[in-house]
Amino acid sequence: MKIYYDYFDSPVGQLTIFSSGEYIVKISFEGENFDEGFFCKYFRSPSFINKDESVIKRAKEELCLYFKKSLKKFDLPLLLLGTEFQKRVWEELLKIPYGGLRSYKDIAENIGIPEGARAVGQANNKNPIPIVVPCHRVIGKRGELVGYGGGLNIKKYLIELEKGNF
């Protein structure tokens, strides 16, 4: 299976965008270790090709518009790779509007597991497509910024960007 990838220079650092050719499957932050095991788990004998193919081009265009505050909702073909529970959480994240915030508890309640805030946090931590699947919009129940794969400074930047503070 061919996995395409290319780089996008963003205000939060260089992002690496991975595609199956049809779908975006992962976005990694600068400095994040390359995890070939992630791909081996879901794709048979993945081979990696550095190519700016059409789905990646589209992702770059949409990310560019997002960072310019001209795009409020991504319209990319996504292949969410995770457990069924993780996918439920990530699909719920896609419902959080641009500039909106929800607590881990809110997400847990929305997916029918009111005591599942911690499990939601763990699923958030495994989100393979950050920014597009907006895990940065999930905060602690008291409004505090907690946990983000790209670092809290990036989470804060994305929240402030969506509030219009840049």
UniProtKB/TrEMBL annotation:
<dbReference type="InterPro" id="IPR036388">
    <property type="entry name" value="WH-like_DNA-bd_sf"/>
</dbReference>
<comment type="similarity">
    <text>Belongs to the MGMT family.</text>
</comment>
<dbReference type="Pfam" id="PF01035">
    <property type="entry name" value="DNA_binding_1"/>
</dbReference>
<dbReference type="InterPro" id="IPR008332">
    <property type="entry name" value="MethylG_MeTrfase_N"/>
</dbReference>
<dbReference type="GO" id="GO:0032259">
    <property type="term" value="P:methylation"/>
</dbReference>
<keyword id="KW-0963">Cytoplasm</keyword>
<dbReference type="InterPro" id="IPR023546">
    <property type="entry name" value="MGMT"/>
</dbReference>
<protein>
    <recommendedName>
        <fullName>Methylated-DNA--protein-cysteine methyltransferase</fullName>
        <ecNumber>2.1.1.63</ecNumber>
    </recommendedName>
</protein>
<dbReference type="InterPro" id="IPR014048">
    <property type="entry name" value="MethylDNA_cys_MeTrfase_DNA-bd"/>
</dbReference>
<dbReference type="InterPro" id="IPR036631">
    <property type="entry name" value="MGMT_N_sf"/>
</dbReference>
<dbReference type="InterPro" id="IPR001497">
    <property type="entry name" value="MethylDNA_cys_MeTrfase_AS"/>
</dbReference>
<keyword id="KW-0234">DNA repair</keyword>
<comment type="function">
    <text>Involved in the cellular defense against the biological effects of O6-methylguanine (O6-MeG) and O4-methylthymine (O4-MeT) in DNA. Repairs the methylated nucleobase in DNA by stoichiometrically transferring the methyl group to a cysteine residue in the enzyme. This is a suicide reaction: the enzyme is irreversibly inactivated.</text>
</comment>
<feature type="domain" description="Methylated-DNA-[protein]-cysteine S-methyltransferase DNA binding">
    <location>
        <begin position="84"/>
        <end position="163"/>
    </location>
</feature>
<dbReference type="GO" id="GO:0006307">
    <property type="term" value="P:DNA alkylation repair"/>
</dbReference>
<keyword id="KW-0489">Methyltransferase</keyword>
<keyword id="KW-0227">DNA damage</keyword>
<dbReference type="GO" id="GO:0003908">
    <property type="term" value="F:methylated-DNA-[protein]-cysteine S-methyltransferase activity"/>
</dbReference>
<feature type="domain" description="Methylguanine DNA methyltransferase ribonuclease-like">
    <location>
        <begin position="3"/>
        <end position="79"/>
    </location>
</feature>
<dbReference type="Pfam" id="PF02870">
    <property type="entry name" value="Methyltransf_1N"/>
</dbReference>
<keyword id="KW-0808">Transferase</keyword>
<dbReference type="GO" id="GO:0005737">
    <property type="term" value="C:cytoplasm"/>
</dbReference>
<dbReference type="InterPro" id="IPR036217">
    <property type="entry name" value="MethylDNA_cys_MeTrfase_DNAb"/>
</dbReference>
<feature type="active site" description="Nucleophile; methyl group acceptor">
    <location>
        <position position="135"/>
    </location>
</feature>
